[in-house]
Amino acid sequence: MPRVRWNGGLIVALLCVCWCAACASLPAPAPATAPAATPRIQGAQGALSTTRARALLAKRWPQGRLDPATQALLEQQATGVPLIAGNRCTLLFDGPQTMAEMLKAIRAARNHINLETYIFDQDGLGLEFADALIARQRAGVSVNIMYDSVGTLGVPAEFFQRMRAAGIRLLEFNPVNPARLRSDHWELNQRDHRKVLIVDGRVAFTGGINISSSYARSSLFHSSGQRRQHGSAEQLGWRDTHIKVEGPAVQAFQWLFVRQWAAQDSQNLPDADYFPPTVTAGDKLVRVLGSDSTDRFDIYQAYQLAFQQARRSIHLTSAYFVPDQHTIDALTAAARRGVDVRIILPGVSDSGLVFYAGHAYYDQLLDSGVKIYHLRLTVLHAKTAVVDGLWSTVGSTNIDTRSFLHNSELNVVVLGTEFGQQMELAFQEDLRNSDEITRAAWQQRSWLDRLREWAASLMHYWL
Length: 463
Hints:
Elements: H1 8-20, E1 41-43, E2 46-47, H2 50-58, H3 68-79, E3 83-93, H4 94-107, E4 112-117, H5 124-138, E5 142-148, H6 157-165, E6 169-173, E7 196-199, E8 203-207, E9 238-239, E10 241-246, H7 250-264, E11 284-291, H8 298-309, E12 313-318, E13 321-322, H9 325-336, E14 340-348, H10 352-359, H11 362-368, E15 371-380, E16 383-387, E17 391-395, E18 399-400, H12 401-406, E19 409-415, H13 417-432, E20 434-437, H14 439-443, H15 447-457
Parallel strand pairs: 1-3, 4-5, 5-6, 9-15, 12-14, 13-18, 14-15
Antiparallel strand pairs: 1-2, 3-10, 3-11, 4-7, 7-8, 8-10, 11-19, 12-16, 15-20, 16-17, 17-19
């Protein structure tokens, strides 16, 4: 599945727009010093008292690792987004498991379904989702779908018209054709890269998985079998990660969806109970971070602060890795102060330019002690990180300028050792299916590869 689907004419148009926007840049990381205060934590019944918030943040965290209270306060300062207590978080691995859970939630919907996606293909899986959504709309459930215009370029209009005819509200995000705009501004370079499903205001999903049959082929994750031959991206399974959230944090997902819809469409969403009374569903502390044309840097700043504060480990998995200099500086500084920095990157990719552009940064990272691995026999599409086994994030954001500066993205940050351990176990399993890129081996790569890296790196801003 191509990262962006377009023809030659569209490439030229997009590059012109991107060139005009080239003066934009990522901000410096937020200051890594926190005042003497307690982070805000929201619960099912409202804000927690200072005493309860301190007790919750101090609970069961080992010494010698990232300080959760400091980290939470720094993130709050940088983003203005509070932590939310009382949630259940379930990790979902690869397309088949994730699609099964999402379809189960859709078919159980009683009030409304809000779906926001970059890719919604007209293929076997896309048709199954469309049928399920149409069935719920006909059963009286309010169904609203927001899909990206570039991500769905090439999908026949009839596919969406069939859902629209059934009564589903559909909104095309930033149409490539400005004649189809429903808002005042044509922002071709601003894409909606989120993958979000919200059902009845009580359960939400996000991560890296689009609605496409490409994700129907699972990776080697949780598999004892090893394929011997490398295949093309079209033949291989896709390794991805999603998260299912239940509890008060779902309201934060809902708010981001409603705000995104309102920015694109002057018409209101159909009446529904979008914000039902919240209930405690688990014990996870969660921060829901969204980036868009208004608040572009919350996810970026959260990553930067986590890297700066790391004391023991940074374990990063990134499908598209074309880091800005601040991110490189944060990762290399962590490695030099003794933090175990490991990055799992694609061994095969659906985007050749991004693949080689990312390679251009390997020398600097390897020289500082960062360890780099290539996942083999699988197309890597996950966007996750776990720091010190305590700070974890799952979402749609790639480690590149496009995600941090131009795309609408959504990431969930989860604080705690239990969820962090699940993230670590997943990272270690991916590590076993990966090959380490050593400094000596990297120096032996061909001059043709070096030329490809140099050429791709010239376009790093636009990838």
